[in-house]
Amino acid sequence: MKWQGRQGSSNIEDRRGMGMGAVSIGGGLGGLVLLLLISALTGTNPLDLIGVTPESQQEETSGTRGLRENDPQAQFISVVLADTEDTWREIFRSHGEEYVPPILVLFDGATQSACGIGRAEVGPFYCPEDRKVYLDLSFFRELDQRFGAPGDFAQAYVVAHEVGHHVQRLLGISEKVASAQRYGDQQRANALSVRLELQADCYAGIWGHYAGRRGLLDPGDAEEGLNAAAAIGDDRLQRMTQGQVVPESFTHGSSAERVHWLRRGLDSGRLEACDTFSNATN
């Protein structure tokens, strides 16, 4: 990606080095895979599996706004975040709405959010309660080395996916899904979760579409993102950890589905193309 020299976002909160520390369940992406597997098999929110309690949701930690100097990976994420802000501001304006961007929190190991204690083992996540994206940069090392999904656009896709959840929050989609999940069995709740995640993939693709029009993308960048989407499909995670695939337990979608919807957003650049709730996913 052509990101050097571009303006970064001011909506960064840096909590790295604040000393909360990580409580490991196996460490790195291995712990993440285990958490996602247990979540898929039980239908449990991953945050519930790492000791989130009502008490832990009452306080919120604040960090330093802005970034340190000589911090290229964080600066890259800041530029990506700024570009998502440009994209969604333009799209919301075209629909007569105002886009209010999220805050992106950088942390080491573990940190407090309004949704409970977020840990690196869970991977990047969006908390709708405080409208913040949480990211431990070590996730990208795991994405590269263990999942075979290297590249700066692969990292950008992850950020854009979480921002996609913020867009869903602003549009009222995530609230409707949460309400519908309360009135059905676990299999239906999982299916709705898949639709929500695939739509966030499509929204990430919309950002990629606009980023390409602004000249940020290099040849092969889109393929990096598609490779990353395939790498974190539920079927691949389950095959890695348990040797078999249980589709009814999916919560994020198969590799093929995630690639399909990311590509759809990349190709179309339109919100209307990302209706995963009424369109077939293949």
Descriptive notes:
The chain has 282 residues and is of the alpha/beta class. It has one domain. The protein is built from nine helices and seven strands; from the N terminus they run βαβαβββββααααααα. The chain has a five-stranded mixed beta sheet, with helices on one face. A two-stranded antiparallel sheet has the order 4-5. Strand 6 and strand 7 form a beta hairpin. Helix 4 packs across helix 7, helix 5 runs antiparallel to helix 6 and helix 6 runs parallel beside helix 9. The two termini are 29 Å apart. About 10% of the residues have low confidence.
Q: Strand order, biggest sheet? A: 2-1-3-7-6
Main β-sheet, in a few words? 5 strands, mixed
H/E series: EHEHEEEEEHHHHHHH
Q: How big a fraction of the residues is strand?
A: 5-15%
Mean pLDDT: 82
- Helical content (DSSP H or I, runs of 4+): 40-55%
| Rg (CA only) | 18 Å
Say how many strands there are: 7
Write the layout of secondary structure elements.
Blueprint: E1 12-14, H1 28-42, E2 64-65, H2 72-94, E3 103-106, E4 110-113, E5 116-119, E6 125-127, E7 132-135, H3 138-145, H4 152-171, H5 173-181, H6 186-213, H7 221-231, H8 234-242, H9 255-268
Parallel strand pairs: 1-3, 3-7
Antiparallel strand pairs: 1-2, 4-5, 6-7
Helix pairs in contact: 1-8, 2-4, 2-6, 4-6, 4-7, 5-6, 6-9, 7-9
Outline:
The chain has 282 residues and is of the alpha/beta class.
